[in-house]
Amino acid sequence: MLKIENTALTLIDVQGKLAGLMHERDELFRNLEILVRGADALEVPILWLEQYPQGLGPTVPEIAQLLGARRPIEKTCFSAHGSEEYRRQLQACGRRQLLLAGIETHICVYQTARHLLDEDYYVEIVGDAVSSRTAANKALGIDKMVRAGAQVTSVEMALFELLGEAGTPQFKTIARLVK
To answer: Looking at the domain covering 4-178, what would its CATH class be?
Structure first.
């Protein structure tokens, strides 16, 4: 089970024109917004990455505006784990359960998951908050991550699992987000 005190969200490369080319883009953006707002409400750390922003552009405004004063971690390697700054921030937050969301499922999300699994992190892919340009590549990426040891969840499933119970102020926030 995911535990708030042991979970962090890694948000991978939701940038520029590439983000607009994702399969089921509108649903992806909506789910990412809910996930980021929910993580904030639950005080789950968010590690935010951008792949070569000089070339791909910044994170899409719909998501970037939700991240407030945070700054993205720039990377050129496909795996977030290849970034020294990502590894430093991950170690500093002290979390061993990681939710992965973003693009592209079969490239950057997949390679990040593989490296994290190799480092004995518990990894859950947020299946409705990842995408690729094609449905086939998304499915292949998720399948390969699962075969490597990752689990798959959804935005709602992850948020309510982290929440654990109703009747709290956070429950009301999460319930409003998913309606």
So the answer is: alpha beta
Is position 13 annotated as part of the catalytic site? yes
40 noted as active-site residue:
no
Instruction: Reply yes or no on whether 108 is catalytic.
Output: yes
Q: Which residue has the tokens 């359960």?
A: 97
> What is the distance of C-alpha 16 from the center of its chain?
17
Catalytic entry in 3, 75, 118, 120: 75
pTM, two decimal places: 0.97
pLDDT per residue, tens digit, the chain (179 aa), is 999 999 999 999 999 999 999 999 999 999 999 999 999 999 999 999 999 999 999 999 999 999 989 999 999 999 999 999 999 999 999 999 999 999 999 999 999 999 999 999 999 999 999 999 999 999 999 999 999 999 999 999 999 999 999 999 999 999 999 98
- Active-site choice (3, 77, 108, 143): 108
Amino acid at 12: I
Set 3, 13, 77, 120: catalytic member: 13
CA-based nearest residue to 155, from 3, 28, 47: 28
Residues comprising the chain, all counted: 179
- The gap from C-alpha 111 to its chain's centroid, in whole angstroms, comes to 13
Q: Which residue, among 43, 40, 51, has the nearest Cα to 13 in the 3D structure?
A: 51
